[in-house]
Please model this.
Amino acid sequence: MRSMTAALLMAACDAGEGGEPVDAGACSPHERSDAATDAHVQEEPDGGPPPFEPCDPADGGAETRLPADIQAVFDDRCVDCHGAKDPKGDVDLRAAFAYANLVCRRAYELDPPRNLVELDYATRSYLLNKLEGTHVDLGGHGYPMPMGEAAIEPDAIGRIAAWINAGAPAE
Model:
């Protein structure tokens, strides 16, 4: 399964001052009409996804959170580095902040740009590239995530990809 991954970023939805992680209320679930959904998943003539355009998640309030099964992966494998004081890459993956720090946030290390989580497109989501170690193929740098540890299990990566392909709904 070809997919993309997340790492460090500067937000497409309001990053905090100085690149601090954003509060979940600043960028939250994407409430889409059928017309918006259809436009977002429309493919290019060659069958690939449309060119990069920043997502536009709607304000879902301060309690916007990832689904429990997705958050559990981050809690188990990621928050030691991406949580609490000084999260690596300014990506705080603790439950209160993970959605806002992933969904529609731009991966700052790439040109052309990609989002960490691109709604409806796991194959265009840099988060999966970082988890699978394919980020360097796109011009990214650094180590696959989680750095210095065994790779995240394929079934967990599959759940994350399925969540993204379903439009990255919040819980």
